[in-house]
Specification:
about 650 residues, alpha/beta, 6-stranded mixed β-sheet, VWF_A
Length: about 650
């Protein structure tokens, strides 16, 4: 069988990731190389959105949309619309009744007018008094029934979103069905509290009453969540009113439920919902600033949406300890921003998963870390930035050009000898075979002998033991030079690993103490919030590294923004003193002298311009013969890499 492989042309590559995960890492790398931690860099990436995906929203885009929705909801209307409408209908009914009574000269008419005059001032009390009143006016009786229908629909709609339309033209059978639904619902909740509820029970309930729940919940938990959020919104509506409004509307609700025969069932339901979802803001106050009066159901819906948007805003900000995208409720995103926003959120979640699955991120003990693979890529990125600022003519990096067993190709070749490890020069080998009679008439194959083989010559490189000493003290962060120092360390590590693999590089960080920094530690490294610049300890560690490689050419580079202020005592502890003590300077310069005897030139990159530092580095240069640089933080990497390449060429 024959197989052919080629580019896939029948649509998007089914095996391709939904985005370039390396581009996502590079986006994170910009922040990490500027001093951010991996977790903060990932959070910033998620806020901005997918690199190169203009049609996908980031968390910040969603957050702006949520805040706009909250502002629109707050400006939508007032909470007292039902009260206002109820008062208007009550006044209309009383006016119609008075108009009917006025022409009648009888004592009964005057008695009725007196009864109307003594009605309670609050709307609920007046409606309660008029519930047993015998209306003389048919129009007034109809208006009062319209008022009671309004209250029944609004009160029930404030608890069950689908009941207002179901009770638009109520009849005794419709109300009886509502009462039976609430009884069955409470029984189902009680059964669940005893651990006896099954999905079959819920399915039977929904088959009977599903038209009353437009949200179409799939199980009891979803139904409880829907009802609890609405009940909590009703409580928030009452809490947001003035005391008088709260008293009037509360009275109307209580009175309406009593008349509908639902008081006990509603009380049972409220207790069950609160017990299951006490985390909801049941009595928080909200402020709506619009002019349009909202009905009770519409006001509860607005407050319910506001609560959703408030919680969603908190989750989208991701600014609390341990924040993760899994904290964002997809159902809340769907309700607030639509289905497309759920897709955008899922795409953001895939970033973190892909970075972990492709070996760039690792969660260790709950902490997000970069893997060595990610650090190598960030180092390459830092190195590219450095080289982009260097002139092409300054990139030479070889020192000895005699043919050897390792190094870069010179363009020439020589006959193969036993033990050679250089690559075979295929073209010259075949040419030698043809010239030496390796082709027979009628045969296209070339017969090769040992004498025909040639190998490509390479230039020999001397190995170097490289020590980069990086100041980690608090002053580096204060002066804004720490991010540049970290980028420089990553760039040098990447340069040595890619172009000088035979070199032995060691990066040493120093503050009050010094320590060797591993390559995979560099990207997530942060400065030390301690006092002390212990260059003495750093030079001790660097000296041991050079001594382990006695045949390597020594290269020592120091990046610092301050003179030594600490040294290592004989007992291993650090001694700090500022201004620097005579003992600190003496011990540090003693290590400089040892470096000089090792033939190691120390080049110092000075990131500050104070007189004490200048005096110290001038003394180092005088004793050691090295050079002193004073680059800006932006050009530190360029200076260090250029100087390293110069030293490699010189040797």
């Amino acid at each position: 069988m024959a197989f052919r492989y080629g580019e896939y042309h029948d649509g998007p590559d089914p095996l391709a990731p939904p985005y370039d995960v390396r581009a996502a890492l590079d986006e994170m790398g910009d922040a990490i190389l500027s001093g951010s931690t991996p977790v903060h860099a990932l959070r910033d990436l998620l806020k901005r959105g997918l690199p190169g995906a203009q049609d996908r929203r980031g968390l910040d885009d969603m957050l702006r949309e949520v805040r706009r929705r909250r502002r629109d909801l707050r400006e939508r209307g007032r909470l007292d619309g039902t009260l206002e409408k109820a008062r208007a209908l009550l006044d209309k009914a009383i006016g119609q009744e008075r108009a009917e009574l006025f022409p009648d000269p009888s004592d009964d008419a005057r008695l009725r007018e007196s009864e109307l005059d003594t009605l309670p001032e609050d709307t609920a009390g007046a409606i309660q008094e008029l519930s047993t009143y015998e209306w003389r006016s048919a129009a007034a009786r109809q208006t009062f029934e319209e008022l009671r229908d309004l209250l029944r629909r609004e009160v029930l709609d404030s608890q069950f979103r689908g009941l207002r339309d179901a009770l638009a033209n109520p009849d005794p059978e419709a109300m009886e069905r509502v009462r039976q639904m609430m009884s069955d619902l409470n029984d189902m909740l009680d059964k669940d509290a005893r651990g006896e509820h099954t999905q079959a029970d819920f399915d039977a309930f929904m088959s009977k009453y599903g038209d009353l729940f437009p949200e179409k919940p799939r199980n009891l938990d979803e139904l409880v969540d829907i009802l609890a959020r609405r009940a909590a919104a009703t409580q928030r509506m009452l809490a947001s009113m003035t005391p008088r409004q709260r008293e009037e509307l509360g009275g109307l609700i209580s009175q309406t439920l009593d008349q509908a025969g639902l008081s006990d069932q509603m009380r049972r339901l409220g207790e069950s919902l609160y017990a299951r979802r006490p985390d909801l803001a049941w009595n928080a106050q909200e402020r709506l600033t619009g002019e349009e009066p909202l009905g009770m159901g519409d006001a509860v819906t607005a407050l319910e949406e506001l609560a959703d948007l408030t919680q969603l805003e908190t989750a989208l900000r991701q600014d609390y300890p341990g924040a993760r995208l899994d904290d964002i409720d997809e159902a809340a995103v769907r309700r607030a921003l639509g289905r497309s926003a759920v897709d955008d959120l899922e795409a953001l979640k895939r970033i973190e998963r892909e970075l972990e699955e492709q070996g760039y991120l690792l969660r260790r003990r709950g902490k997000l870390e970069l893997t060595p693979k990610a650090v190598r890529r960030l180092g390459e990125t830092a190195l590219r930035r450095v080289f982009s600022s260097l002139d092409a003519g300054r990139r030479g990096d070889h020192d000895q050009h005699d043919a050897g067993s390792a190094g870069e190709l010179t363009g020439s070749s020589r006959p193969w000898r036993f033990g050679d490890e250089q690559p075979i020069d295929v073209v010259r080998t075949l040419v030698n075979g043809v010239r030496n009679g390796g082709v027979t008439p009628g045969n296209t194959a070339v017969r090769l002998s040992v004498d025909d083989f040639e190998v490509a010559e390479t230039e020999r490189r001397s190995a170097a033991a490289v020590c980069l000493l990086v100041d980690l003290s608090y002053s580096m962060a204060l002066r804004g030079t720490w991010a540049a120092a970290k980028q420089t360390a990553l760039a040098l590590q990447a340069l040595v690993a890619s172009k000088f693999p035979q070199d032995a590089v060691q990066i040493i960080g120093f503050s009050n103490y010094a320590r060797v920094l591993q390559p995979d530690e560099l990207a997530g490294l942060d400065w030390d919030m301690v006092q002390g610049t212990n260059l003495h300890h750093a030079l001790l560690i660097a000296g041991r590294h050079l001594d382990r490689h006695p045949d390597f050419e020594p290269v020592v580079l120091v990046v610092t923004d301050g003179e030594p202020t600490a040294h290592l005592l004989r007992n291993g502890r650090s001694a700090f003193e500022w201004p620097p003590s005579h003992e600190t300077l003496e011990l540090t310069l003693s290590e400089v002298d040892k470096m000089t005897r090792r033939r190691a030139t120390i080049n110092v990159f000075m990131l500050a311009a104070d007189d004490r530092l200048k005096e110290f580095v001038d003394e180092v240069a005088r004793r050691n013969g090295g050079r002193v640089f004073s680059p800006s933080a932006e050009r530190l990497g360029e200076y260090v890499v250029s100087d390293f390449l110069r030293l490699r060429r010189a040797r």
